[in-house]
Amino acid sequence: MQVDPRGQRFGAVITTLVLIIVLVTSSSMLLAAQAVVFVVGVVFGLRDAPYGLIYKALVRPRIGPPKELEPEAPPRFAQGVGAAFALTGVAGYVLKVPALGMTATVFALVAAFLNAAFGFCLGCEVYLLIRRLAPTRATS
């Protein structure tokens, strides 16, 4: 499956804004909603994730098709990493450990901001590093 990389940046912009609001308000509910967005992207694919649907309906028709597509696996993995940080943050806020909630949210925010501002997907790079370091299976 291939995806439009501009859609990933669009989703990262929304995620960045949501996570800034979470840090300002300490809203575990908003962070939980963002975690759901991440999980939907992992389970159902990026095109069917909430931000992907918004991009497909409102943005892509205005800017046209992409010049190139990219494999979905790295950004989908990145969504899983984002979900892990978001869920950790929710646990921190719910369990009255705000330092954990804020720290996990900041980690997710940094990754989202790097993608939104510079097109650098930190989770994607981790995915590629794992793929390079993982032993390959011998085929018979």
Describe the fold and architecture:
The protein is mostly helical. It is 76% helix and 3% strand. The protein has one domain. A two-stranded antiparallel sheet has the order 1-2. The two termini are 26 Å apart.
The helix-and-strand class reads: mainly alpha
Low-confidence stretches: none
| Main sheet characteristics | 2 strands, antiparallel
Please tell me the total number of domains: 1
Helix coverage percent? over 70%
User: Numbering strands along the chain, what is their spatial order in the largest sheet?
Assistant: 1-2
Determine the mean pLDDT: 95
Cα-atom Rg, whole angstroms? 16 Å
N-to-C CA distance:
26 Å
* Number of helical segments with 4 or more residues: 6
Task: Describe the secondary structure blueprint for this structure.
Blueprint: E1 2-3, H1 5-25, H2 28-44, H3 50-63, E2 70-71, H4 73-94, H5 98-118, H6 122-133
Antiparallel strand pairs: 1-2
Helix pairs in contact: 1-2, 1-3, 1-5, 2-4, 4-5, 4-6
